[in-house]
């Protein structure tokens, strides 16, 4: 059954004959497993023509909570697959204050608030996933030492273990870029790719690797941290302590800093992209250079792992050709096509919801359930803003 579930997650809806080939199980065994999955509400069959049916994963029961812990905000979404409803909440903080990243108490409060709003009990949750805007050490489950200043209230706290003890339901915690990568591989731009590299480029820069349908974490849990790949040894100092990391060239703050001398007065990356589309030469220049740096970072990474698809997510991905033209040309200069001739560079598909949806994908994977496609109601975000009182 595990092999059939993994095949459906990796390849999406499939015929029973295809499942038998991929899993190396007999057709009779696959038929029996599919029947059991249908009875449990985990899978359904969809007619293709009068003679053929496709098997697809579908989640019909239970509720999943996904929480996103960012430096300047907290977001939470409850996905109720029983009533086909999504409930959202968020709170923002002032940057460079002690409030950054909120705290475990606020996360617990948001979870309980959404559970109550949905008319559920905490025990109705199949699980809670927490996406953290920082790398987590695999051995301890805590925010890694060099990123603790970014989330001071989470210092030395084993994220999943602490929240699970308080909430009384299964909790999984993961770096936000890793979860975004998992969501994009499951339902977005990387669907069906055996080897997938994802970069989240917004206020911060993170990366995630999905290999054979699983997040690749490495020995210490920090694999995929493309944002801290050193591109220029004499470049700007990064908060991780190194110089010239990719983050210092393509994060929102670094791009805004690069534009200060131009006198444009831009305060957000969205504004930079809008101005570039209207022909602002300074904004077009910084996006061009951001693409060039990304192309170098991708080329260096891809020569080691040879992914079939590389996706760019986050706000920066919305720049379109203003970013991707220089990204692709920079990668070609690094002779990437010689090592990986079939590699594709694409914009991510799931937008700002990627990390939250990755939480759903993680709970599905951990509980042996899943959905081959996300229903429309799960993609409609109806954010309910909480007072900025903390």
UniProtKB/TrEMBL annotation:
Cited InterPro entries: ArsR-like_HTH, ATPase_NBD, ROK, WH-like_DNA-bd_sf, WH_DNA-bd_sf
SUPFAM superfamilies reported in the protein's UniProt record: Actin-like ATPase domain, Winged helix' DNA-binding domain
Pfam families referenced in this protein's UniProt entry, alphabetically: HTH_24, ROK
Positions of transmembrane segments: none
Protein family membership: Belongs to the ROK (NagC/XylR) family.
Name this polypeptide is given: ROK family transcriptional regulator
Species name: Streptomyces hyderabadensis
């Amino acid at each position: 059954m595990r092999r059939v579930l993994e095949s459906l997650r990796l390849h999406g809806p499939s015929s029973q004959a295809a499942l038998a080939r991929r899993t190396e199980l007999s057709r009779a065994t696959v038929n029996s497993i599919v029947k059991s999955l249908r009875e449990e509400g985990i899978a359904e069959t969809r007619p293709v023509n009068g003679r053929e049916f496709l098997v697809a994963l579908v989640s019909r029961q239970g509720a999943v909570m996904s929480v996103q812990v960012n430096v300047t905000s907290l977001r939470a979404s409850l996905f109720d697959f029983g009533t086909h409803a999504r409930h959202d909440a968020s709170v923002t903080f002032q940057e460079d204050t002690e409030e950054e990243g909120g705290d475990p108490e606020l996360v617990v409060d948001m979870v309980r608030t959404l559970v109550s709003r949905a008319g559920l009990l905490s025990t109705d949750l199949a699980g809670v996933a927490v996406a953290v805007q920082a790398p987590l050490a695999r051995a301890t489950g805590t925010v890694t030492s060099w990123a603790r200043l970014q989330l001071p209230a989470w210092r030395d706290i084993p994220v999943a273990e602490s929240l699970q003890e308080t909430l009384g339901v299964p909790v999984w915690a993961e770096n936000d870029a890793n979860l975004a990568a998992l969501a994009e591989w499951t339902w977005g731009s990387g669907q069906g790719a055996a080897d997938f590299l994802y970069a989240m480029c917004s206020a911060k820069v993170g990366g995630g690797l999905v290999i054979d349908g699983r997040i690749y974490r490495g020995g210490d849990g920090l694999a995929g941290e493309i944002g801290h790949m050193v591109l220029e040894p004499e470049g700007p100092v990064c908060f991780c302590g190194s110089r010239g990391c990719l983050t210092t060239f393509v994060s929102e703050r670094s791009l805004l800093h690069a534009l200060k001398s131009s006198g444009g007065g831009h305060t957000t990356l969205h504004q930079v992209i809008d101005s570039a589309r209207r022909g602002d030469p300074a904004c077009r220049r910084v996006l061009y250079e951001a693409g060039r740096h990304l192309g170098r970072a991708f080329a260096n990474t891809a020569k080691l792992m040879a992914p079939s698809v590389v996706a760019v997510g986050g706000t920066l991905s919305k720049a379109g050709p203003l970013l991707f033209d220089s990204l692709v040309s920079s990668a070609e200069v690094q002779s990437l096509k010689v090592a990986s001739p079939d590699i594709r560079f694409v914009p991510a598909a799931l937008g700002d919801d990627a990390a939250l949806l990755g939480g759903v994908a993680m709970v599905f994977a951990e509980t042996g359930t899943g959905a081959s496609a996300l229903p429309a109601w799960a993609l409609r975000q109806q954010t309910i803003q909480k007072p900025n009182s903390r």
